Amino acid sequence: QVQLVESGGGLVQAGGSLRLSCAASGRTFSIYVMGWFRQAPGKDREFVGGINWSVSSTHYADSVKGRFTISRDNAKNTVYLQMNSLKPEDTAVYYCAAGRGTSYYVGYDYWGHGTQVTVSS
Questions:
Q1: Strand-pair partners of 115
Q2: Which of 33, 37, 94, 101 has its CA 20 to 30 A from that of 69?
Q3: Phi, then psi, of 83 in degrees rounded to 5
Q4: Percentages helix, strand, coil for the chain, rounded to the nearest 5?
Q5: E strand residue ranges, 1-121
């Protein structure tokens, strides 16, 4: 079992920055990929980005590439989503996920509770 807890969400002005954190606990040795997803009201959940936990390689959705950066802190079993140049369309609930497979997009087994990010214009 793996538990994920997101934090760092809030209200920010367009053009500003936020850093989200996702702390993992439990059977963290089983984690291979960690990803960030988001869901806006009335819209489907979408992939934001992911990181291979072992080698720290990353992949991002085109909508956030160049603005968002995923990093990790192995000592804290924590992954971060640094969000810069935020836009109103980035407003959503952001979820952290962990998986035991190799895909960045599917096969996630564990999910956090989500953290709200609101970007004002």
A1: 94
A2: 101
A3: -115, 115
A4: 5, 55, 35
A5: 2-7, 10-13, 18-26, 33-39, 46-52, 58-60, 68-73, 78-83, 92-99, 108-111, 115-120
The stretch 4-21 carries a mean pLDDT of: 98
Summarize pLDDT for 82-117 with one digit per residue, the tens.
999 999 999 999 999 999 888 888 889 999 999 999
16/104 Cα distance (integer angstroms) = 27
What percent of the chain is modeled with pLDDT above 70?
100
Give me the residue label for tokens 């989503």.
81
Q: Copy the structure tokens of residue 51.
A: 């990181």
Token digits for 54? 């072992």
Beta strands 115-120 and 10-13 are parallel
Place of tokens 């850093």: 19
Q: What is the DSSP string of 58-90?
A: EEE-TTTBTTEEEEEEGGGTEEEEEE-S--GGG
Integer distance in angstroms from the first to the last C-alpha of the chain?
Answer: 40
